[in-house]
Amino acid sequence: MAPPTSSRPPAEPDPPTLSPVRLQDLRGRFPIVQNRIYLNSCSLGPLSLDAEERLDSFRRLWHEMGASAWYEHWLARLDELRGAVERFLGAGAGEVALSPSTSVALSSVAEAVDWSQRPRVVTTELDFPTLPYQFAVKPQVELVVLPSHDGVGIDPEQFAEAVDERTAFLATSHVFFTTGFRQDIQRLAGIAREAGALSLIDGYQGAGQVEVDVRASGVDIYTTGPLKWLCGGPGLAYLYVRQELIGKLEPRITSWFATRNPFDFDPTGFAFHDDARRFEMGTPALPTVHTALGGQAIIDRVGMPTIEARNRLLARRLEDGLQAEGFSLRMAADPAQRTAIVMVGHPHPAETVEALAEERIIVDHRPGYVRISPHFFNTEAEMDAVVDALARLPR
Ligand SMILES: Cc1ncc(COP(=O)(O)O)c(C=O)c1O
To answer: pLDDT by residue (tens digit) across 149-181?
Structure first.
């Protein structure tokens, strides 16, 4: 039987540039890039050989051991993933919970506060809808959806004006999914704290493309997951809750995984876990636990300074090339607020995405835009190829 692929010491990250040899080596870990120009990591990160090897080990153990693999291997994989994510996010031990989706992670937090004194939630029209939806369905919540004045970002002053002593959550994204605009979460955390509210950051489009240090940023709650920029597949999300807050939150939706002694199987003995596991909502998707560990290993190996620097370089090349071809881009005026989600104004986004797929270029669309999201394994030549292809297609 193959030994479990756990507890390898984390490799030293690369310096903030990648040599051509190192880049080729990394590209060799992602089979899809051998056949496609893959530019849709903000929707679904590609499957790596690292993730596949982890998945194979899971499949093998399932065949060979059945349920006893739980005790000898798989419970340890859950701890391994929580630990890896904690290190990656700059969190402390016991501050990260595994959740089935961002929506579930958000709802367990939204079900853990007293709404009577603070019924207000401040969010924005640029957030991914599942964030405001968690609050829109609660009749006791007064939901404020801030408008974007430029259609790209939100001025932090808008939060400062709207978040008050009746506000429970300042709830918004780290990076907006349709504009790539990166918010200053440290500043937002400060605005919430000053009003006695909690900062709740949806980091699904943040972690993995921009550096995150949850502790240094001072945010109270940060959600993300392996699906996109962490190249770890669908079926899981991560929930960070600041240590000092964990003991104060008791969600009104729960599971046996949230209890201190789940394996006592005592129906009369409910007691919340002391750490972030109190937010967990049942048996996690084990295949994804494995693919997430594989994806995370590559991200950690390359290191966020390198990934962020490369993604900046690739995105700038795309922006320059597209603007030279006369395309209009939906992006922040300040390059420091841009990320690797590049929105290209287009009269026929769906048809164009289909035509590009026929040329083996994988991108996505949102109303009025073709959405292109390169990641560290992409090359500058691939940026030029998608610009050329877009310039050739009808518009
Ligand atoms: C910013 C953001 N939040 C959340 C989600 C998804 O939430 P869930 O995990 O509940 O499907 C997405 C995209 O799928 C997203 O882009």
So the answer is: 999 999 999 999 999 999 999 999 999 999 999
Nearest CA to ligand 1 atom 8: 102
Of 44, 98, 107, 130, the residue with max ligand 1 atoms within 8 A of its CB, to mutate for a pocket test, comes to 130
> Residue 170: which CATH number?
3.40.640.10
Would 141 be classed as within a structural domain?
A: yes
Strand order in the sheet with 96-99: 96-99, 237-241, 221-224, 198-202, 167-173, 120-124, 142-146
- What angle do the packed helices 349-358 and 380-392 form, to 10 degrees? 120
- Residue-number span of the structural domain to which 240 is assigned: 74-298
Query: Which of 44, 134, 204, 281, when mutated, tests ligand 1's pocket best, judged by the most ligand atoms within 8 Å of its CB?
Result: 204
In terms of domains, do 106 and 249 share one? yes
Per-residue model confidence (pLDDT) at position 29: 97
Whether residue 222 has its Cβ less than 6 Å from ligand 1: no
State which ligand 1 atom lies nearest to the alpha carbon of 104. Answer: 10
